[in-house]
Amino acid sequence: MAKCIEVIDKKLHERLRQWSNRGIIEEEKPGIVYGVELHNIENPAIFSGKYQFWVGDELYSLKDIISERKHGRQKQELLSLVAKKEVLQAYIKNVQHACKKGHFSAKIMSSTGMDAGPGIPIDENIVLRVKESLPMQPWPKGVHKVVAERMGCKPRTVSAAIQELIRRGVFKQQIDGELFESK
Description:
Helix content is 39%, strand content 24%. By secondary structure, it is of the alpha+beta class. The protein folds into two domains: 31-112; 124-176, Arc Repressor Mutant, subunit A (Orthogonal Bundle). The strands form three sheets. It has a five-stranded antiparallel beta sheet with strand order 6-1-5-4-9. It is globular.
């Protein structure tokens, strides 16, 4: 009996893996959105689909984890990345190291499924108040501070609410007043 259950379990796991690989079963994976601004370099290798990096003993390419690339003004873009948390963490470390050379700056604009550390639980009432308080896009730089002052709350609370509204598709992603459109 135990042998029969083991065989069934093995076959079931194999079938689930096949379905997952074909996209029949969609696994929820962590993701991040990077805002990138190039300073004095045209196309850094770290943002090329061919860029490779190690995670433990496995080699990954950026093309394996990039789900979308949006372009803003001339030297700005957003990269949406989706992968296992350890893969994203390895890539983040590589980007942070490459940023130190000063050729570009990169900032995580939003993340899902990653440990946020001491995060702010987002109250739905605050999200709605922030939505009603925001002017039409594009917003001027620092709009979260103005809205926070008007609402009597912390700027990081308003930022978290804005990121949630962007995640929901209510607003578009932007950096320094520049909207990012899908290409």
